[in-house]
Specification:
It is a single chain. The chain contains 5 helices and 7 strands. By secondary structure, the chain is an alpha/beta fold. It has a 7-stranded mixed β-sheet with strand order 1-3-4-2-5-6-7, sandwiched between helices. β5, α3 and β6 form a beta-alpha-beta unit. It is globular and about 45 Å long.
């Protein structure tokens, strides 16, 4: 997939105020310091499209971007650690949960996971909840450039082994780096494939 145009559309604190669900939609979420904004900028080829910050927890709303006028990319608030109040975290959780459960055009949730760390309960529990609710998702491992290839392979193998204890069929996964562009084509091609199926289904049901 070639990104010709990527632009910010709107921010909302309520899923029911999000743009009309006329295009397929892909949500990006992860722990608050996983490198989500950098990855979104790398995927779209637009530095500064998603605002990066040295302080975790900067994203506090449901942020919609429209890509090539054909699909929505959604930047969701991170879960886990952030320097905000418990009340704010609880509000984010309610907002995110409602969005994930009720957004009709949500094709897939991209769960971002730091490739440098062993499996963390917060990530495993979030993905398990998605599975229980029937929300499609893929795993996107970030920051692969921050360690050796051997270390990355070993940690990834451990992660998949841990996942296999919970899942009969492992979710699809991608290994990425916002610095080197690793995984960009794979993630965008995946989105392109799902978009094609969405268009085919829409034509059939027209």
């Amino acid at each position: 997939m070639i990104i010709h145009d990527a632009r910010f559309l709107t921010s909302n604190s309520r899923a029911d105020l999000c743009p009309a669900p006329t295009l397929p939609e892909y949500a990006f979420i992860g722990r608050s310091n996983v490198g989500k904004s950098s990855l979104i900028n790398m995927l779209t080829g637009r530095n500064g499209l998603a605002k990066t910050s040295a302080s975790p927890g900067k994203t506090q709303l449901i942020n919609h971007f429209v890509i090539n006028d054909k699909w929505f990319l959604v930047d969701l608030p991170g879960y886990g650690y952030a320097k905000v109040s418990k009340t704010s975290r609880a509000e984010w959780a309610r907002m995110i949960n409602y969005y994930l459960m009720h957004r009709a055009n949500l094709m897939c949730v991209c769960v971002l996971i730091d490739s440098r760390h062993p499996p963390l309960a917060v990530d495993l529990e979030f993905m398990e909840k998605l599975g229980e609710e029937g929300v499609p998702f893929v795993m996107v491992f970030t920051k692969a450039d921050k360690q050796s290839t051997a270390q990355t392979k070993a940690l990834l193998a451990d992660y998949l082994k841990k996942m296999s204890e919970i899942w009969d069929e492992l979710p699809r996964y991608f290994l990425t780096s916002a610095e080197t562009g690793l995984g960009r084509d794979e993630v965008l091609n995946f989105i392109g494939e799902v978009n094609e199926q969405w268009a085919a289904d829409a034509a059939t049901n027209a």
